[in-house]
């Protein structure tokens, strides 16, 4: 009875569960890195599609042929490439940081070489 009463007084959040009185946090389903990886497609597609669309609208209003469409297509492509490079640079930084932390703890990690496998 007292255990049930003490559990009622200390409600735990949805991301915690109790094991013999010890609170343990559950691992999240998706990490921020997973969310960032899933959003990279939108970071590529939106500038590439939106640039020419707004260029087309400007060309129609200003009667300038396809000048603004091509300019904004170039800007969209450059923006998409810059976004991918920024993402890759950050991921490589995190990978190297994790590798360094593992080496500092004495954990030896060996990268798998797929070319040598048959």
Tell me briefly what this model is:
The chain is 65% helix and 7% strand.
Keywords summarizing the entry:
118 residues, 2 strands, 3 helices, mainly alpha, two-stranded antiparallel ribbon, elongated
Rg value: 26 Å
Overall, the morphology is elongated
Helix content: 55-70%
In whole angstroms, the N-to-C terminal distance is: 63 Å
Poorly predicted sequence stretches spanning 5 or more consecutive residues: 1-16
SS elements, strand count? 2
Hey, roughly how much beta strand do the residues contain? 5-15%
Major sheet attributes: 2 strands, antiparallel
User: What's the quaternary structure here?
Assistant: single chain
- Series of secondary-structure elements, N-terminal to C-terminal: HEEHH
Biggest sheet strand line-up: 1-2
> Mean of the pLDDT scores?
81
Count of helical segments?
3
Q: Structural class, judged by helices and strands?
A: mainly alpha
Would you give an account of this structure?
With 118 residues, this protein is mostly helical. It has a domain at 32-104. Helix content is 65%, strand content 7%. It is built from 3 helices and 2 strands. The chain has helices at 2-9, 32-62, 67-104, and strands at 16-19, 22-25. A two-stranded antiparallel sheet has the order 1-2. A hairpin with a 2-residue loop joins strand 1 (16-19) and strand 2 (22-25). Helix 2 packs antiparallel against helix 3. The protein is elongated and about 65 Å long. Residues 1-16 have low confidence and may be disordered.
